[in-house]
Here is the input.
Amino acid sequence: MQSLRCVRFCLIAVFLSSVVSVCLADTVTKTDGTSFEGQIVDITPDGVVHIKVKYGVVAIPKDQIKTVVRAAVPTPPSGPENSPGLRDVAAGPRYYALPMIGEIGVEVSSSTLEKAFKAAALERPDVIVLCIDSPGGRVSEIKPILDLIADVKKPRLVAYVSKALSAAAIIAMACPEICMAPDGTIGAAVPYQLDSQGTAKDVNAKYKSVFLAMCRSAAERGKHSPLLARGMADPDIRLVVTSQDGKPKVSMEGSGDVIKQKGEVLTLSANEAVGYGLAVGIASELEEVRRPLGMERWCRVEKGMWHYVLAEGKRYRKREDRDLYFARIAPELEQMDGRLEVIAGELRTIDASLADHRRVYDAEAASVEEEYERTMKVANLNAVADPNYAKMLRRRAEDTRYSKLSNLTSRFQPQVLNLKRRRNELLEEQGRLMRARKKLLEDSPN
Here is the structure.
């Protein structure tokens, strides 16, 4: 009987484990009807699903996927054996963390974030956390990112701010919930434009009006005070904060704690952001953001997208640094190339002049040699009949040949020497410029 009970217990355990494994399995069905049950371990930005099955990991391209069904996280029964210290670490709400680290429009781009949000949607998280550490960036990139944020309907959208200045501050305020790092800052969103030398200059009134409207829209979208957003972008207003029904209220008029005088740009510390009602709390690290959100625990589910976004940011940064470098050295390169072109033209002219001098010299020297040969022929003809006359002709021919060749050399040599000296100078300058140009190109960011 004891052995029979053991057999029954084992059969029941096997049955229950199989049921649990089926219930907890992710399922990917292909367009040809084939199904795979297991655990989805990764979803790439281009939609390739990697699912772990019994015999390994299968990669299924996006165009071959019909449906993806994610397993529900089971609710364990109550009891001491399922206390927080013993429950599955995956228990609790699922959060998907995305980095927004670096310059908006460079390391942080709407194109990369669009892929990240699509990948997040496939994971069906309860919360998406944007980890913002940015000095700001391009105004032109704000609206595309705000549109992506506006499309996030179901998951709670949280901005975890280490630094959100300028454009990054506007993006953070579009999130319904903001949590600050202990030394976090948010604000300083005054728009500016860069001139051709990279110097910041004020924008015109029309552009500023459009920018302020975008700040107000972002704050309203995140259900934050539009005046806080305006104060970050408009130095021409005064802001005070008072308490109304136990909550902070920001206004431009009246008495209260002055948080911004005219002529100043609003930038808030972590404590100020919480005190003025912008942030829900302060968290020392990403894992702790759950506490101000009212969660005892949560599990992270982005599976590699964090690293993908950072890698894309580095790639865009390298390209941006390279573009900026070439923009900076462009005038110098242009000047070098212009001078090298002038040198090349002058060298061609010198080489043509040397060739002309060589042709004239050779022609005149050939004429002298022909005259010499004729005189020597006459002398040879008279060598027997009149040896003295022949000797005189030979001497005269030698003297005449030497004299004319000497005069010819004296006439051409100074011109040729000057041309060759100038040619050598140009070649040396050309070499220096080409070496300097090569170094400029080699020093460009890789």
Q: What stands out?
A: The CA atoms of residues 15 and 158 lie 42 Å apart.
